[in-house]
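Q: My labmate handed me this sequence with no annotations at all. I'd like to see what the chain might look like in three dimensions before we decide whether it's worth expressing. Could you predict it?
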Amino acid sequence: MKRTHGRRLQLAVQMQIASRSRRLPSARKVRRWIKSTLATQRGTRTIGVRLVDRSESRRLNATYRSRNRPTNVLSFPAPARQPGGERLLGDLVICAPVVAEEARAQGKEIDAHWAHLVVHGTLHLLGYGHERPRAARAMEAREVRILARLGYSNPYLI
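A: Here is what I predict for the chain of 158 residues:
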């Protein structure tokens, strides 16, 4: 059996592009954003990222959240433990056209908004939530700290 305790984070990001959008972040950027979010983790972690268009986002949002509209990011956590020390965190599904529209509407740089949504979704995979005010404040504070380390400003002040 592999020992993963005390070992640095080893991250595998499995990225799928199912979007026709032209302004997509590189796999390298997505990996960097995820790795920054997982900075306190140890061992081997795997995460799937799928970049989609509106129709797939709407279909998944309707199926899993009963909301018949596309959304910016959906998080699908994996079961807590897998055999062999590897830990599959789950999957993120990010709707590229929604991200671009939100960035434009909010006056944000597109990369900064992508980074925020990748960090946000990854935190959901780690168990963070924002349904209750206290939990939302904790999650937002963590997002702001992570984004600052990455060189991005507070997304909640824009």
